[in-house]
Amino acid sequence: MMGLFENFFRTPPSKSAALAKERLQIIVAHERGSRRSSPDYLPALKKELLEVVRKYVPIDQSQIKVHLDREGGYEILELNITLPDEEQRQGQPRSGV
Amino acid sequence: MATVIVVTSGKGGVGKTTTSASFATGLAQRGFRTVVIDFDVGLRNLDLIMGCERRVVYDFVNVINNEANLNQALIRDKRVENLHILPASQTRDKDALTKEGVERILAELKQGFDYIVCDSPAGIERGALMALYFADEALVVTNPEVSSVRDSDRILGILASRSRRAEQGDAPVKEHLVLARYAPERADRGDMLSVDDVLEILGIPLLGVIPESSTVLQSSNAGVPVILEDSSEAGAAYNDLVDRFLGKALPHRFTSIQKKGFLKRLFGGG
């Protein structure tokens, strides 16, 4: 008879699978997005650019921004280097900037 | 022309080697000359699952380093005709698996086999990348569990960007989902991601659902690929999977709770 009770008075379904699905959809979409917008070579490109600029101007990692965008059939590589103020540059060679 | 198939997943312990062993055995049973290669350099598991661990003399890395030829290293399966195993090396460092070396061995195997099944190690390190690099098709083994699904998605990204087909701009690696360790009654209760949930997230075609089954452990204990236990659910599921891979349109089984008759529901068997 226990079988009968178990079948007709089941505990309500828990919702942990729904939560798992929701979390996965968010994280997977996020990771796919970052995969697409930053190809493998971007970190290396950024590092090498930093080294070249540093030959002439003292800058740190946070002052160089590399961003790749897709628009229609085009890819746009956006490069942003913030140079330091004049005072901060004192003592450094000024030529070649 | 031989087809190279990688069995991969990202996450460990989801059933890659179990799937590789059964898939290769199933292809061979159906008459295709099949070789299954263990890419897990350093660990070596496939030989145990296939039950040929005591017959390993030379391995994959020996062949790459020209210390043995393929015929010396290939182990012929004793149960199934047309089936060979190329075991992984246990002791060498992982750098032994060079792209040139792997390419040369695969080219040689393509002469004598219809299907080359590459059993990938877990992770996304060299061994895993080498196992998938030359693949024409991929079986992505996933468990209905969050970290496994996420890692599978990661592997799909790598297949699409870092395989030889991707690098050379050829047709992409053909992807198949293998959902292993599935428990329909738990999915039905809402405790486990369902087949549809996983399909919706990963978005690749479903090749087979392998139910959670104690037979899988029993057959690995015995060194017998579970596909040979055809009276078991897992064995039947793998047989369906191989037939589907070869083009048969079979409905998916073991994805929903086995319906019990009314009397059985009332009087036991609960």
Task: List its traits.
A: 97 residues; alpha+beta; 3 helices; 2 strands; B: 8 strands
**What's the overall average pLDDT of chain A, rounded?**
75
Amount of beta strand of chain B? 15-25%
Which structural class fits the helix and strand makeup of chain A? alpha+beta
Uncertain regions of chain A: pLDDT < 50 for 5+ in a row? none
How do the SSEs of chain A run, as a string of H and E? HHHEE
Computed CA radius of gyration of chain B, to the nearest angstrom = 19 Å
Number of helices of chain B: 13
The secondary-structure element order of chain B is EHEHHHEEHEHEHHEHHEHHH
Rg over CA atoms of chain A: 27 Å
Largest interface: A-B, 22 and 25 residues
**Portion in beta strands of chain A:** 15-25%
Count of individual beta strands of chain B = 8
Describe this protein's structure.
The complex is a heterodimer of chains A (97) and B (270). In chain A, a hairpin with a 2-residue loop joins strand 1 and strand 2. Chain A is 43% helix and 16% strand. Chain A is an alpha+beta fold and 97 residues long. In chain A, strands 1-2 form a two-stranded antiparallel sheet. Chain B is α/β, with parallel strands linked by helices and 270 residues long. Chain B is built from 13 helices and eight strands. Chain A binds chain B through residues 2-4, 6-7, 13-18, 20-21, 23-25, 27-28, 31-32, 35, 40, and chain B through 145-146, 149-150, 153-154, 157, 161-162, 187, 189-194, 197, 200-201, 265-270.
State the gist of this model.
With 97 residues, chain A is an alpha+beta fold. Chain A has helices spanning 2-8, 16-37, 42-54; strands at residues 64-71, 74-81. Helices cover 43% and strands 16% of the residues of chain A.
